[in-house]
Amino acid sequence: MEPSFLIRLPKGGDLVETITKVFRTKSIRKAAFNLIGAIDDCVLGFYNEDRKYVNRDFKGRFEIVSCIGNVSEKDGEVFVHAHIIISDSEYKCHGGHLMSGAQIFAAELFGVPVPGDIPVRQNDEPTGLALWTAFND
Ligand code: ZN
Prior knowledge:
about 140 residues, mainly beta, 1 helix, 8 strands, about 10% helix, globular, binds zinc ion
């Protein structure tokens, strides 16, 4: 298994798609990661009471205060789930589920592959989300 890695993501790409591409290229299907840097524009999602993602667009340059997430498998493909906190030029923060639409200005990814069985996301009726098998003691 590949050890943990630090890598810079290229300027201009979509943030969540580029993170996914890194893990797909490395054939890593189980991992945790964090990332810091800066982006232009961002789309944040909030999963509401009606079981729908409501998205909000943020335009302009933002610092990535924190972006954390995990890597597993969904529909046979590498799937990245990431949440992010961004700060604007007034140092105000906004956060949520990271959607496509954030353009990388500079981004440093710390990836940590995790050994063992690969978690697989499947539709979960109670939440309406694609989730891992729940812990069951
Ligand atoms: Zn989420």
